[in-house]
Amino acid sequence: MELSLVNAAGRQVIERYAAAGFRISGIIYAGPVLVFPDRTIVWEEAAMTAESLAPVAAHGDVELLLLGFGRRMSPVPAELRAALKAGGIAVDGMDTGAACRTYNVLLAEDRRVAAALLPPI
Fold this sequence. Notes:
The chain has one domain: MTH938-like (Hypothetical Protein Mth938, Chain: A, 3-Layer(aba) Sandwich). Strands 5-4-8-6-7 form a 5-stranded mixed beta sheet, sandwiched between helices. The chain has a 3-stranded antiparallel beta sheet with strand order 1-2-3, covered by helices on one side. It is globular and about 35 Å long. The chain has 3 helices and 8 strands; from the N terminus they run βββββαβαβαβ. The longest helix is centred in the last third of the chain and has 13 residues, at about 95-110. The chain has helices at about 55-60, 80-85, 95-110; strands spanning about 15-20, 20-25, 25-30, 35, 40, 65-70, 90-95, 115. By secondary structure, the chain is an alpha/beta fold.
């Protein structure tokens, strides 16, 4: 799905998402990704665990993490929510399309946001 773009010069804007992956700021990524305002990385160990989301905590400038669970929303595991909260990061889980759109809006508002996205398959 093609998304409306927001004015975010020099930032990682999610432009498109599909079952095959994502287009973020003109670059195509196959599979899961972690998106930060300043960079996007391939999410090698795509699992909703504190260990696989360690790059988010290591980034050091995230106050809200959006989890894109694919086609359907799923509850955020309590252990993961607690681990992120301990690091000062709030978390919100939703389907991937909603996570992409919400990320772009919050990015445009200069919020300290990141997104962990699974393709909607």
